[in-house]
């Protein structure tokens, strides 16, 4: 496959002469500046709203037919009824409407226009534009980002249908994803450009595609820790059920949260078309990775209605054993090739068999699946009890008995699986006894809730001790034959 840049250069080369001109007005029929300050523009007060309201905030009847833009969106066509969303936490403080505005006031590189070099108002800088940009939106001292930011804006316009392009839809998406994945410094610029193009967007189809693009990118790489709370604020504002992009906003919120924990797609290989398509499809058909156990079981309900365990857990575990992982030195400690692991992850989400000949690949993906569970395998409510009684077998067994049924089954299956590797005849070859197995698996079962590095360090040893106790003492005979 050719480099994505080569297939999308048409949309970047188009209208190059515009770079020599000043930017035109962003929205015809709207004042260029001075209509209102940024705070009132983003206010919820009806008396302060301008005559043309943000298209994603307009009220729509819940009983109305889906808008045409949603029907045309590829991700919506996938399966709108299968969307798995989570309500906002009741104890979370609602994000401030002015958060993104505050970020803009401190960081936006306000552009100029006209012979008098008049600066764009903050409102204009945060509103949809039909024209290209000549400078990055975010202030930066990195001169190499200038052209990258301008090219990125054109690509976003092309994806959203606001700019003509001879490149294919997937080629444009892949180019955007590749630029954001390969250059961390451009990610915040990318996300604020998408926020801009989904604000006061006059075309609903373009608006939906903009939110789709945001979800695709968040599935591959997160923004910086600095910009994350501002992007989160922007996304949460659009989760109102009356918004036509509420489902996209819910997906973006979930991916933003998960990305903040797991980071960007790992590996040396650039994103592929398949990974971009998968990220788009999973907006409404959630992945088996990064969800709760209940959600994973719901995903397989139609395909495997009688299963008591997640298909992905048993499939990967059996693959490790089939590939002689129990006799492979360093199993679970030596990582599999990261690009092969990523490729297998795509296959698993498509319900396809393991195709690797290296046991380290399914072993690494299995660890990743446990680690990326939205809620830890041993729920947070049990964490302190596990830590305080990390060397007490009776308490450990009591915790297992009191777990929710699906957590109990999944944990018991994992422990039974690890007991195979802990057997003396296998540990002698793999160099992975119960202590070493506990060391690599404990972070995938228990999740420390503290941000204090010292607490995390102290608890790591206790987490390992608790998992080691389970491997050594838990009777897992009741799991025999259970799938």
Give a short synopsis of this structure.
With 483 residues, the chain is mostly helical. It has helices at 4-7, 9-13, 38-41, 68-72, 74-79, 99-107, 122-125, 145-159, 169-182, 187-197, 204-218, 228-236, 246-262, 273-281, 293-299, 311-322, 338-349, 360-372, 383-388, 393-402, 405-422, 424-430, 434-445, 453-473, and strands at 112-113, 118-119. One of its GO terms (molecular function) is GTPase activator activity.
Q: Helix segment count?
A: 24
CATH topology tier name of the largest domain: Serine Threonine Protein Phosphatase 5, Tetratricopeptide repeat
Give the % helix.
Answer: 40-55%
Walk across the major sheet and give the strand order. 1-2
Question: What labels would you give this structure?
Answer:
Rho_GTPase_activation_prot; single chain; 483 residues; RhoGAP_dom; Phosphatidylinositol 3-kinase, Chain A; two-stranded antiparallel ribbon
If you had to describe this structure to a student in words, what would you say it looks like?
- The chain has 483 residues and is mainly α.
- It folds into 2 domains: 4-281, Serine Threonine Protein Phosphatase 5, Tetratricopeptide repeat (Alpha Horseshoe); 293-479, Rho GTPase activation protein (Phosphatidylinositol 3-kinase, Chain A).
- The protein has 24 helices and 2 strands.
- It has helices at residues 4-7, 9-13, 38-41, 68-72, 74-79, 99-107, 122-125, 145-159, 169-182, 187-197, 204-218, 228-236, 246-262, 273-281, 293-299, 311-322, 338-349, 360-372, 383-388, 393-402, 405-422, 424-430, 434-445, 453-473, and strands at residues 112-113, 118-119.
- It has a two-stranded antiparallel sheet.
- A hairpin with a 4-residue loop joins strand 1 (112-113) and strand 2 (118-119).
- The model is unreliable at 15-98 (pLDDT under 50).
